[in-house]
Write a structure and sequence with these properties.
Protein name: AzlD domain-containing protein
Keywords: Membrane, Transmembrane, Transmembrane helix
Number of domains: 2
Helix content: over 70%
Shape: extended
Distance between the termini: 39 Å
Mean pLDDT: 91
Strand order of the largest sheet: 1-2
InterPro entries: Brnchd-chn_aa_trnsp_AzlD
Low-confidence stretches: none
Radius of gyration: 20 Å
Pfam family, one: AzlD
Amino acid sequence: MSTYIMTTILLCGLVTWLSRVLPFAVIKNMTLPAWLIKFLSFVPIAIMTAIFVESLLTYHAGHWPGFDFANIAASIPAIVAGILTKSLLAVVITGVVAMALLRLTGFA
């Protein structure tokens, strides 16, 4: 691998790491206003909703989005697991197992 490519990969990794760590380091010793903390508390659910809805839809150029029924079917037990356990790990494992079973049975 050339030095240029290796340097590019390392610098990209450094920039990615800094952009994730630096904000926490900067605000570690600061007191944030209550309204900002409340606003930031909605960020994780907004991101997860966007990722979740995007995985349920399929895009076809020039048409309305369609539904990915395999992902919808696999998400139902994952949602139930999330409601019952409140555990992200349980949701992920349930979703992966549900999709594996759908693919194993030929529905996906």
